[in-house]
Amino acid sequence: MNATMVAGGRIAHFNVARLRHAPGDPRVAEFVDNTFAVNAAAQKSPGYIWHLADEEALVALDGYQGAGNDPKIVYSMSVWQTISDFQAFVYRNMHGSFFKRREEWFEPWDGPNYVMWDFAGSTPVPAAEGWARLKRLADKGSSDFAYDFKYAVKNGAS
To answer: Tell me: the pLDDT tens digits for 23-71?
Structure first.
């Protein structure tokens, strides 16, 4: 893939974080209780295509197990028409207000906690692909295969 084509079209995004407290703890309740509302806001956002709605990934559901059976690990994945659409969702509106408060609810993450990649496939996207691309980003740094916002902007994303 040519680096100038990074994020020239659809992008997929995978994000992971570790809650400071287990779901059900009142100290993270505001985050947990609003996950459905934030997902609904995403669905109404320009450029939205799809998000992971697998019951195993929804922290707001009773019995949430988390990743690797750690209920404090939460993750999400989505697909957007353009990186600009995704960026607008992340930093503005309802999600943006929660994003600004992330340190209240999440522990520092060792390494990158999100990854993006150009996406020409079909949905649903398996969570395993998000985990694999995040690992690749952590192990080898940004590339056309797995990148962050900084790399996307540097390599021609619009």
So the answer is: 989 999 999 989 889 989 999 999 999 998 865 567 766 777 778 878 8
d(CA 52, CA 30): 21
Burial class (CB in 10 A: 0-12, 13-18, 19+), 12: buried
* Strand ranges, E, within 19-62: 48-51
**pLDDT, tens digit, 9 for 90 and up, residues 89-113:** 999 888 889 899 999 999 999 999 9
Helices (DSSP H) in 52-144: which residue ranges?
83-91, 93-99, 102-105, 127-140
Structure tokens at 113: 């906690």
At 109, list the tokens.
Answer: 């993450």
Cβ(61)–Cβ(134) below 8 Å: no
